[in-house]
Amino acid sequence: MTSTQNKSQTFISLVSGGLDSCVASFSATQQGQCALVLFFDYGQKAAKKEFQASKKIAKKLGAPFKSIALPFLAEVTQSALVMNDQVIPQIKMGKLDDRTESEKSAAQVWVPNRNGLFINIAASFAEALGIQSIVVGFNAEEAITFPDNSANFLSRAEAFFQLSTLKGIQVSSPTLGMNKKQIVAKGLELQVPFELIWSCYHGGRKMCGQCESCLRLIRAYHLNDLDKKLQKDFYYWPQEWKKTAPGKQAS
Fold first, then answer.
1. What's the Rg (C-alpha) of the chain?
2. How far is Cα of residue 27 from the mean position of the Cα atoms in its chain?
3. Residue 171, SS3 per DSSP
4. Nearest to residue 133, comparing CAs of 123, 144, 141?
5. How high is the pLDDT of residue 76?
6. Does the CA dihedral 129-133-137-141 come out positive or negative?
7. What's the whole-number mean pLDDT along residues 126-137?
8. How many CB atoms lie within 10 A of CB 166?
């Protein structure tokens, strides 16, 4: 969405409950109004936590919330995000920017055509409701290993919607091109309620602090001097950072 758009323009936001979609949604409200938050339950291990986070984010946005179940996606995928007999991959903090390691991790949590499916469903809602824009939360870090998180994906989606929708639904991502550090910084600027988000592949009482998604958020918090959130939100965080976070590590 561009700066020429005004508050009367509405959009549908796809929210997973995580950092990127949360910040993207709040950022988009600077130019328009969120008319609907869509959340997708495809049998992921963190579905309950993501649902709760997304619903709270929708409330903060002042938008209606709709959860859509996609049980067939769990049936056709072999992703560790869904399969209970597969372990969620872990990667060391120092290897987050190692493309070989991150590609290996990405392959284990890949869900076939997930984002493609999500935005197509959102486009159906948008066209039916007379809404022209869909907002998603993508980032530069994961675009390297997840092609459906990239600018190329967005441009091709819009090209497809020129044919599959009558008015050519638009798709935008205010966080596109930002790394996680920059997304957290943007969230701080917008006073995004970080206490609501869930960015972990697991569905425990706290975020695990060991999966790739957690590690990227932990690093972003640390680089924005938010170490105080580590003890509160995560079970684990890097040993060398413990001295900067209050209290003791949760067991």
1. 18
2. 14
3. strand
4. 123
5. 86
6. positive
7. 97
8. 8
Closest CA to 2 of 133, 123, 152, 118: 133
According to the model, what pLDDT value does residue 81 have? 74
What is the number of alpha carbons within 13 Å of residue 152 lying toward its C-beta? 5
Chain centroid to CA 32 = 20
With contact defined as beta carbons under 8 Å apart, do 168 and 161 qualify? Answer: yes
**Structural domains of the chain sorted by starting position, each given as residue range(s) with its CATH number in brackets:** 10-244 (3.40.50.620)
| CA dist., res. 35 & res. 240, Å (int) | 43
Q: Is the pLDDT of residue 1 over 50?
A: no
Side chain identity at residue 91, one-letter code: I
Q: What is the pLDDT of residues 8-67, one digit of tens each?
A: 589 999 999 999 999 999 999 999 999 999 999 999 999 999 999 999 999 999 999 999
Residues linked to residue 39 through DSSP beta bridges, in sequence order: 67
Structure token pair of residue 247: 């209290």
